[in-house]
Each structure stands twice: as C-alpha cells, then as structure tokens.
Automatic annotation (TrEMBL):
Name by which UniProt lists this protein: SDR family NAD(P)-dependent oxidoreductase
GO MF annotations in UniProt: oxidoreductase activity
InterPro entries for the chain: NAD(P)-bd_dom_sf, SDR_fam, VLCFA-Steroid_DH
Keyword line: Oxidoreductase
Length: 264
C-alpha cells in the first residue's frame, strides 16, 4: 500500500495522530508507521486503537502508544499532552473531528460549543503546545485537518463549517510564523472523502477521493513546506465556485443528509 516517507531526523522519532480510530486519522497512522515513525494514536474509542496499534507494530515494526481522549471536551487535549510528555515528538497530525448535519436552531446551544471544541479548539490547544516543543527542538511539523468550502458557510452544518473555517485560517496564518522557526505547518482541507463517516452520516460517497490519496497528498505537501492542500477534484471544484453557489450545493447535500439521519 502507498505511503509517503518523511525524514525521521526532522519529523521523528514520534508522531502524534488524533482521531486515529477510523478514516483519515487511521490512514495517517498507517502511512507514518509505514515510513518508520513511531506513532501515538488517540481517539475516544479504546478498542479500535488497540486493534490499530497491534496492526502497526506487527506490520511495520514500530512502537505505538494509544491514548484514549475525547477532543470534544476541554480536558481532552490536555490529557493527550500529559500522556506524551516523555516522548520526543517531531510531528503532530491534529485530525480529530466529526460532522453531524442538522438545523442550527433545532439543537441545544451546547452542540455548537462541542463542535467548536472538537473541530477547532482542540487543534488550537495542540498546535500551541506541540509547536512550542517543536520550536525548542528546532525541527518538526504540524498538519491540521480543516475542510474545503468552510469559509463560504454550509447550511445545515453551520457550526461545523464555522469551526473548520477557524482551523483553515489559523493554519494559513501560522504557516509563515512556524517557517521562521524552521518548522513545517500544512492544513489539509478535504472535501468528500470515502470513509465510514460518509455512510454513517448518510453523505454521498460518489465523487470523493480515497483516504489513501488524501493522506499521501497531505504528507507530500507537509514535506514540501506547502501551506495548504485540497485533494480530490470534487473538493477543488467546490472551492473554485462563487460562495453563493458553494453554499447552495453544500446546503442541499447537508439538508438531505440531515433528513435521512432523522428518518432512520
């Protein structure tokens, strides 16, 4: 299976991957391990982490550490920080996130706060902490996972899109600051990607890119020092549209997904 090898001298010996139990996060862990990096894998569910950790050690002869932490809660990032204090971390892949389409006014306000914490706040806290550690060692990188089209706003996923837009913008701004310290920082802004999330949230699976392509494209961009990368033709087309058209297309998709989820 494909993978992108990152120089261990800069990005190793340990990489931290959040949201590693499935989808893009799991593939990040696999490709990094295939490239010879030890990996800290973190997610809310213990069982998938244990399964993944055993697989990585057996197939790629690397070490792993599993950290169960909920990034939608304020103490989640801090738990991960404490659990990795003794490791020489050269790379942070802050990937944790989720999307549940639905009407803003049809939910409790707490949902929006939790969405921001998961899709933006956790990235902010982890980037600041690990960024400081990487600056002290003089080498390393951060890869954040945002979303394509978030800045245009997405009806029936408004709070989610706003949080992802924050992450996109944070990364673009920090890219130059990190470069001044010899660090790489890239934001992956995926559109439709064929993961279990697509089926779980009744989102269309056609026209999307694969997780393998999304991750390898992101790691190539990080290695090259690029600020942003958007894999997949569908996502790039969506990004090129006027904001009003992007909102209309995305809104119809999310409205249909929300209705399908309610009717299940």
């Amino acid at each position: 299976m494909t993978h992108v090898e990152l120089p261990t001298a800069k990005f190793g010996p340990w990489a931290v991957v959040t949201g590693a139990s499935a989808g893009i996060g799991r593939e990040f862990a696999r490709q990094l391990a295939a490239g010879g990096l030890n990996v800290v894998i973190s997610a809310r569910r213990a069982a998938p982490l244990a399964e993944l950790g055993a697989e990585l050690e057996q197939q790629y002869d690397v070490r792993h550490r599993a950290v169960v932490a909920d990034m939608s809660q304020p103490n989640g990032p801090h738990h991960l920080i404490e659990a990795t204090a003794d490791l020489d971390v050269g790379l942070l892949v802050s990937n944790a996130g989720d999307l549940v389409p639905g009407e803003f006014l049809g939910r409790e306000l707490q949902y929006a706060f939790d969405s921001w914490q998961l899709n933006a706040g956790s990235h902010l806290v982890l980037t600041h902490h690990f960024g400081q550690r990487l600056a002290e060692r003089g080498a390393g990188g951060v890869l954040l996972v945002g979303a394509a089209g978030a800045e245009s706003g997405i009806p029936w996923a408004a709070a989610h899109a706003a949080a992802k837009a924050y992450t996109n913008t944070l990364a673009r701004g920090l890219h130059a600051e990190f470069a001044e310290r010899g660090l790489n920082l890239t934001v992956l802004t995926p559109g439709p990607t064929r993961t279990e999330l697509q089926s779980r949230r009744a989102l269309p699976e056609t026209g999307g890119t694969t997780v393998s392509n999304a991750v390898s494209t992101a790691l190539k961009a990080l290695k090259a020092g690029d600020v942003e990368v958007t894999p997949g033709l569908a996502a790039r087309v969506l990004n090129s549209l006027p904001a009003s058209m992007s909102r209309r297309i995305s809104g119809r998709t999310m409205a249909a997904a929300a209705q399908s989820t309610v009717s299940q």
